[in-house]
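REQUEST FORM: STRUCTURE PREDICTION
Request ID: SP-0412
Submitted by: Lab K.M.
Chain count: 1
Length (residues): 107
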Amino acid sequence: MRLSEKTVSLLKNFASINQNLQFKEGNKLRTISPQKNILVNAEIPESFPSDFAVYDLNKFLGVLSLFQDPTLEIGERSMYVGGKVNYVFADPSMILVPPDKELAFPE
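STATUS: Completed
RESULT:
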């Protein structure tokens, strides 16, 4: 799979909110700040085939920037970026994740 410019831009914004991110199967991304005062939900054009966690999103984005339009091959415990870099996933217990329930905002 390849990540669109829109998705990479969203990941950069997410990295400014929380350095780690739990990717869930599908096309939705969610993060929460460590102070738990900012919660972000986003829908992206790509759909991830499985769940995985990235401990340092800025370093992950740095690896992506080494390549021009890299292909991501997502495995069980790691992903190959550009067919050359084996990026190992973080343990999900080490990642701060937002609550599963959706927030209801007043109209």
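NOTES: The chain has a mean pLDDT of 91.
Reviewed by: T.R.
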